[in-house]
């Protein structure tokens, strides 16, 4: 009997449980055994953290948020923080231990569900250790270049749009400017999609360094037309032209590397608007609210399709690949290509043009 192992790594996203459900059901129909590795690779480091997955254990999970396997963005086996006998944290390569347990358990395939970081680790296992790996793309940011869409994105956009809808009434009641910070480290897809759909006056994304004076000019223009409030949507990775990226703290250690912890740009923008435009301004950070809750119908279906497609690829014995959506159909791409670069918002895309043509300011002085 063939046996596979599933892991979910990186930040959680709505639709992860739907992927697990599809993987288990599709594998079960082929009489395969399925195991789940808790918290990324933890189950492959300590086999007591492996859980057997059957149709009974996953029967009700499709509409639920999160992941029943747990997730982590600090579990890179090639650079794992480990406490030594002196109580000090050292970065160790424990990938050989993962491979030893993988072989000992008799797994013929590892299905790695994750974003660019998790898939990069999976590709490294395939390339350096010979692990048979199939990747499933997961990120609410929709920033994986090799797939048309990722599950979790539609739910995140829906959550942000619903928040914007509710903010309109309170902003209008008090003649306020509401600045809403959404996720989007290097790509502004969530900000752009929710901002257009939610009737924002200003959308600030990482791809377009913004001029705060331009933002204030848009708010002043609203005033001239009798609109005494405004909605500003800003991606967490957006930055002003003459300023660096705003972050919560200087640096943090994550999976063996230094990485800036983003957050605070919404408050920064709100403070500048208050000073320059002399408007009553409030800021709101949606944060992990965008990761939570039940996946939308679109994300559920996409996640189920990804899971079933991954099992079909495993059945063919084709590895070091990622399943992807292309032209509305399921396909595969090499994992190396999948993690090559992140998908950013093209400045000449239809959504950018739509935003400009319906009067949304993108933080620059562009004129149609």
Order of SSEs, N→C?
EHEHEEEHEHEHEHEHEEEHEHEEHH
What's the number of structural domains? 2
Mean pLDDT: 93
- Estimate the helix proportion, in percent: 25-40%
Number of helices: 11
* Termini separation: 63 Å
Content of β-strand: 15-25%
CATH level 3 topology of the largest domain: Rossmann fold
Described by strand count, sense and barrel closure, the largest sheet is: 7 strands, mixed
Rg over C-alpha atoms, rounded to the nearest angstrom? 22 Å
Strand order of the largest sheet: 3-2-1-6-7-14-15
Helix and strand content put the structural class at: alpha/beta
Structure at a glance:
This protein has 368 residues and is α/β, with parallel strands linked by helices. It is built from eleven helices and 15 strands.
Describe this structure in words.
35% of the residues lie in helices and 20% in strands. The strands form 4 sheets. The chain has a 7-stranded mixed sheet, sandwiched between helices. A 4-stranded parallel sheet has the order 9-10-8-13, with helices on both faces. Helix 4 links the parallel strand 6 and strand 7. Helix 5 packs across helix 6 and helix 7 crosses helix 8.
């Amino acid at each position: 009997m063939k046996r596979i192992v599933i892991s979910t790594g990186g930040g959680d996203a709505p639709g992860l449980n739907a992927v697990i459900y599809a993987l288990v059901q599709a594998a079960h129909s082929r009489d395969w055994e399925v195991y789940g590795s808790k918290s990324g690779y933890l189950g492959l480091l300590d086999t007591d953290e492996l859980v057997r997955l059957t149709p009974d254990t996953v029967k009700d999970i499709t509409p639920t948020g999160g992941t029943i396997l747990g997730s982590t963005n600090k579990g890179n086996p090639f650079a794992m923080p480990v406490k030594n006998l002196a109580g000090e944290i050292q970065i160790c390569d424990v990938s050989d231990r993962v491979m030893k347990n993988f072989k000992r358990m008799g797994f013929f395939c590892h299905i790695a569900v994750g974003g660019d970081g998790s898939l990069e680790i999976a590709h490294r296992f395939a390339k350096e250790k010979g692990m048979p790996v199939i990747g499933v793309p997961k990120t609410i940011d929709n920033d994986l270049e090799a797939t048309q869409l990722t599950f979790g994105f539609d739910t995140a956009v829906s959550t942000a749009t619903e928040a914007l809808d509710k903010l309109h009434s309170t902003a209008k009641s008090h003649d306020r400017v509401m600045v809403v910070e959404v996720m989007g480290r290097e790509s502004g897809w969530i900000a752009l999609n929710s901002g257009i759909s939610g009737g924002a006056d200003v959308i600030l994304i990482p791809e377009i360094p913004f001029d705060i004076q331009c933002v204030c000019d848009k708010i002043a223009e609203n005033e001239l037309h009798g609109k005494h409030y405004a909605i500003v949507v800003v991606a967490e990775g957006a930055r002003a032209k003459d300023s660096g990226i705003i972050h919560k703290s200087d640096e943090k250690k994550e999976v063996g590397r230094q990485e800036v912890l983003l957050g605070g740009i919404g408050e920064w923008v709100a403070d500048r608007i208050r000073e320059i435009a002399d408007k009553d301004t409030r800021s709101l950070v949606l944060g992990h609210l965008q990761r939570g809750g039940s996946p939308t119908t679109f994300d559920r279906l996409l996640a189920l399709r990804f899971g079933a497609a991954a099992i079909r690829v495993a059945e063919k014995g084709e590895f070091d690949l990622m399943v992807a959506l292309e032209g509305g159909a399921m396909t595969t791409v090499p994992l190396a290509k999948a993690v090559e670069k992140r998908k950013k918002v093209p400045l000449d895309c239809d959504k950018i043009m739509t935003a400009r043509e319906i009067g949304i300011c993108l933080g620059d002085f562009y004129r149609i």
